[in-house]
Structures are given as structure tokens and as C-alpha cells.
């Protein structure tokens, strides 16, 4: 009985391969410093977990509307209105099972088979899978590390065909840790108007901008053009609760809500209750996590920058790109050797796009000590120079 070809055509990320290798190494009794996964290392704050428990105990365990409970949609709308400075209502919000589902259903809602979507290189690998699963064609656009991982708009212009419908952007960025200025965002949004595109702005790291305020695409463009995606996973350290959202014009929200039905029926009821408590409760937990991510980024910079290995200083999220071009290994070989010889797990650059093939991504969502020790080992490994390809 054959398995459908869409499965073999799916490009899965190299991060999970490293995770599996690291787990295997640990099983063999060797310790591993984990810098491969983009997952907050903090537990979900207690008052949020409690709200989830309470919801379950009180019988809030049934299906909810497709788009989520109204009170959570309104809470997300209020949060987004405050952070973006534009009025958004619950009708502009659909709650989904994680931002990853928000992304997929958005693409399912706005593109026809064969439509093109501009996708950042380097960028989060799931953008490619989501576009392809929705029947679209990926058109990668390069981000320039020497310009804060920004795009050249003239080059971008040459990539816009009549079939191009949308551009994906992601600031603060996974994998680069880059953020965006208001000036740059305004230029991009003018470009988007001129070329009649939609912007899908993935803002899941919106709470982790180290200097100044987060720049949301929603704040600076006509709401007709912007679809914002975010969620609770990163902001409140809730990756396993699987709760995200789409914020967009009502027509898109109605389409996405309709698509939820055959795929999930609705997001988890107890997770929705927990996230409502997260959004409406004290935000000092978010500030504490942000301070930790900033401190860890500084630790990584202090070790990698003097050695000339940091591609660009991270200004947000919890990632940095490390230059491995003097190693003679491709990024896949490099992360395998790094794991075996130094006990450090990192993600291969290639998995984020062709332009990142001479780099690795480190996640600084690990303890201060692990970030320090992991970066030192990477530096020492790279100082060996041309590592022969013996792996
Ligand atoms: N976008 C980016 C850029 C991410 O890094 C991630 C998670 N790694 C997501 C979206 C998905 O988040 P969620 O857990 O809400 O599905």
C-alpha cells in the first residue's frame, strides 16, 4: 500500500536529526550541552499552569468554537492592540494549535496551487514545508548578515512574478536573532503595497527584543495587507501547550477558522484557559525571561565575537549564527563532529537555507553556564582550523 508522495516530498528540518543524535549520545552515557533546539528552558510560570489545572478540574474540557473561545480572542486582540498601537478586535483573531498551525492554515487560506510565496533565506524551515503543503511555490529571498539580516529590495523586486501573492517575514528572527527597525519595516511595507502583496509576519519572538520596542508589521501598514502570526509558546514558555494565533482582516480569520474544522476542530480548551490567564495576568515573568535571554546572548557574544566567529550580533529572540567557514566541513558534518568530539549539540545552518550553509545556529535558550561552556567548546573546536572531513 503506497504512502502518498507528499510525505516523501516534505523537507523536514535538520534540527530534529541533531536532537535524535544528541539523545542517542546521552543514552550511551555521555553528557550533551543542548544548543540545538529553539525551546525556552523555563517551566511555564506557575499561575498559568494553575489556570490550566483549574479549567480541567472545573470541567472546561469540551470542544470550543473553531476559532477559540471569545474571551481568549478578545484578550489576544487587547494584547495586540496595546503592542501594535492599532485597534484590533476579537473578530480579527483566530486561535490555533500553535503558531505553526496558524502559519499553515493562513497559507491554505490565501494561496491557490502554483501561487508563489517569498520566503527568507536563512529562515525557519517550516515556512518552506507550509508553503509546499498548501500547494504553493517557494521563492527564497536572501537576507544580508552585514545589513542586520535585511533584504535588498531591488533584488526582491526581480523575484516578484505575477503569481507572487505574499512575503513571509520574521523579526525577531529564528535563526539569526535579528530584529527590524521602523525605517526598514516602512520600506518593506511600501514595497508590498507597490507590488500588491500580502505580508505574513511571524512575530512569535515579539517579547524578546533586547533594545527598544518590538516593531510589528501591523503597526505600520494597512490591515488589509498584513497577517500577523504569534503565540504563547515563546512569550510564556508554553511550547507543549500548543497555542498560537492569527491576527488579520475578518475575511482571512473566517477562512482560517473554517479550515480549523477538518484539521483540529478547535484548539485545546485547557490550553486556552491557561493562555487567557497568561495574557491577563502579571507580565513580570516575561520580563524575567527576556532579561535571561539578553544576558545569555551577551555571554555568547563575549566568547564568539573576539574569535571572529559571530556572523552578526543577536538583538532579539534566543539564537545566533556562528561562522564555520574555516572548518572545511559542511554544516551537517560540522554539527555531527561537534556533538561527537565536544558534546555540544547545535543546528546545521544548511537547514535554514542555502545562504547559511557555512554556519551553524546556536540556541541560547539554555542555562548561562551551558551557553558559556558550549560557546567555548565551539570556539576551541573551530580554532583547530581545517578540520579534516573524516566523519
Ligand atoms: N515561528 C518561528 C520562527 C519559530 O521559531 C517557531 C517555533 N520554533 C514557531 C513559529 C512555532 O511556534 P509554535 O510553538 O507556536 O507552533
Structure description:
- The protein is an alpha/beta fold.
- The chain has 15 helices and twelve strands.
- The strands form three sheets. It has a seven-stranded mixed beta sheet with strand order 2-8-7-6-5-3-4, with helices on both faces. A three-stranded antiparallel beta sheet has the order 9-12-11. Strands 1-10 form a two-stranded parallel ribbon.
- The chain binds 4'-deoxy-4'-aminopyridoxal-5'-phosphate (PMP).
- The site of 4'-deoxy-4'-aminopyridoxal-5'-phosphate (PMP) has 13 residues, from helix 5.
The strand count comes to 12
The run of helices and strands is HHEHHEHEHEHEHEHEHEHHHEHEEEH
How would you write the strand order of the largest sheet? 2-8-7-6-5-3-4
Beta fraction: 5-15%
Mean pLDDT: 95
**Count of discrete structural domains:** 2
CATH class of the largest domain reads: Alpha Beta
- The CATH topology of the largest domain is given as Aspartate Aminotransferase, domain 2
Approximate shape: globular
Offer a quick outline of the entry:
The protein is of the alpha/beta class and 391 residues long. It has 15 helices and twelve strands. The chain folds into two domains: 5-44 and 285-382, Aspartate Aminotransferase, domain 1 (Alpha-Beta Complex); 46-280, Type I PLP-dependent aspartate aminotransferase-like (Major domain) (Aspartate Aminotransferase, domain 2, 3-Layer(aba) Sandwich), CATH 3.40.640.10.
Attribute tags:
391 residues; Aspartate Aminotransferase, domain 1; 15 helices; single chain; 2 domains; Aspartate Aminotransferase, domain 2; alpha/beta; seven-stranded mixed β-sheet
Amino acid at each position: 500500500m503506497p504512502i502518498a508522495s507528499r510525505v516523501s516530498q516534505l523537507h523536514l528540518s535538520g534540527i530534529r536529526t541533531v536532537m535524535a543524535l544528541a539523545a542517542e549520545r546521552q543514552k550511551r552515557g555521555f553528557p550533551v550541552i543542548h544548543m540545538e533546539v529553539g525551546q525556552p528552558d523555563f517551566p511555564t510560570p506557575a499561575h498559568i499552569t494553575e489556570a490550566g489545572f483549574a479549567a480541567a478540574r472545573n470541567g472546561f474540557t469540551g470542544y470550543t468554537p473553531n476559532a477559540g473561545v471569545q474571551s481568549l480572542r478578545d484578550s489576544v486582540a487587547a494584547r495586540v492592540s496595546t503592542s501594535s498601537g492599532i485597534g484590533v478586535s476579537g473578530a480579527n483573531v483566530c486561535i490555533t494549535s500553535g503558531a505553526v498551525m496558524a502559519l499553515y492554515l493562513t497559507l491554505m487560506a490565501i494561496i491557490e496551487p502554483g501561487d508563489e510565496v517569498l520566503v527568507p533565506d536563512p529562515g525557519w524551515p517550516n515556512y518552506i514545508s507550509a508553503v509546499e503543503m498548501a500547494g504553493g511555490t517557494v521563492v527564497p529571498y536572501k537576507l544580508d548578515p552585514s545589513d542586520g539580516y535585511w533584504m535588498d529590495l531591488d533584488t526582491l523586486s526581480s523575484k516578484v512574478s505575477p503569481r507572487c501573492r505574499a512575503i513571509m517575514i520574521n523579526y525577531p528572527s529564528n535563526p539569526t536573532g535579528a530584529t527590524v527597525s521602523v525605517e526598514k519595516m516602512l520600506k518593506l511595507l511600501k514595497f508590498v503595497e507597490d507590488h500588491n502583496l500580502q505580508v505574513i509576519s511571524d512575530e512569535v519572538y515579539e517579547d524578546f527584543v533586547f533594545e527598544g520596542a518590538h516593531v510589528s508589521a501591523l503597526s505600520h501598514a494597512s490591515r488589509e495587507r498584513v497577517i500577523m502570526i504569534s503565540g504563547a509558546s515563546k512569550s510564556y514558555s508554553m511550547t507543549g501547550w500548543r497555542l498560537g494565533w492569527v491576527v488579520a482582516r475578518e475575511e482571512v480569520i473566517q477562512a482560517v477558522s473554517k479550515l480549523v474544522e477538518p484539521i483540529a476542530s478547535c484548539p485545546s480548551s485547557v490550553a486556552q484557559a491557561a493562555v487567557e490567564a497568561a495574557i491577563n495576568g502579571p507580565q513580570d515573568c516575561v520580563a524575567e525571561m527576556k532579561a535571561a535571554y539578553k544576558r545569555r546572548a551577551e555571554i555568547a557574544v563575549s566568547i564568539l565575537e573576539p574569535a571572529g566567529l559571530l556572523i552578526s550580533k543577536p538583538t532579539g529572540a534566543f539564537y545566533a549564527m556562528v561562522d564555520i567557514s574555516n572548518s572545511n566541513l559542511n554544516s551537517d558534518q560540522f554539527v555531527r563532529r561537534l556533538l561527537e568530539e565536544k558534546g555540544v549539540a547545535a543546528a546545521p545552518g544548511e537547514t535554514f537555507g542555502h545562504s547559511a550553509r557555512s554556519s551553524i545556529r546556536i540556541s541560547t535558550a539554555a542555562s548561562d553556564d551551558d551557553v558559556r561552556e558550549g560557546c567555548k567548546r565551539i570556539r576551541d573546536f573551530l580554532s583547530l582550523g581545517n578540520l579534516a572531513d573524516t566523519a
